[in-house]
Amino acid sequence: MQHLVVPKLPTVLHDETAVDLPGYDLWLLYVDNVHVIPGVIDVERFESALSQALSMCPHAAGRLRCSDGRWSIELTNSGVPVDVSYEREKSLSSILQNDYVIQENLSPLLSCHSDGANVVDKEEPLLCVKLAFFAEETCIGVSWHHTLGDAMAMHRFTHTLSQLYQCKAPEFAPFTFRKYDIPPPSDEIATKYHDEIRHLDDSYPPAELGPAFLEANAGVQNFQWRFSSEELHKLRTMIVLRLTSSTVLNLVQEKPIRIATNVCNYRSVNAPFIAENVAGNAFSNAITDRLPVDLAGIASTIHTSIIRTRNIPVPRKLAEHCE
Prior knowledge:
By secondary structure, the chain is of the alpha+beta class.
């Protein structure tokens, strides 16, 4: 059973027709999350809360458009699909692997199965929700298109939805939809930095983005580790986790890890190009140089990559050639 939930009118963007997307927002994939709630939630009440949340975040009910090289989310106030299924005879353990945060396959608990690139200039939703009712639990599956914002934006939206369902006031500040639009680089700048930021200069048709992404990540391996709360507490910083993982894996792999990437959120940076509550993608990848094999060398190289990303000249240089 599927319901379509539209934003409660008027929305916070009722005077606008679209939200413009700068190049750094063009992540054409879905972020999938599943929340497991004890007991059974009320569907009508949930949909009412979702309608209110969409009124505060109306681009989630929009459509992704591209015209003459300019990208935007058209504010169509379209219905967000909410699929409802009842699996009262099934156990949730038949789908989920214990309480692992990372699961092998969440597709039975999700309703949006597009690759994320096949939504451009089509009537495809950017947000999909599925409610799956089991014997003693409710699963809320959310597929959030990355052009709506990063994982932090998604968290704030779903947290606001939860607050509204509980008849509580939202805790986070309202989203801002103003984005810092960096002008296209000159031919000279584009040529100079082409090898460093090839993915920002070489564009692909939407249908080729998925295969190109898979090809670029052909050498990436997936590792799943499980830590207790006490163990996580001991890993005080992400650099320690990255350092430990690189060192341990190098001991057991035929080919050692040579490059590490940290995803750095910069929402709290005091700068004119970002707002802490932006409905967008406020993160940057800090990529290391070639890693040495010794423990101290790995630590130093990772530390240097993070410092380099924070360095003032880096945003200025990127501002010259990022589209």
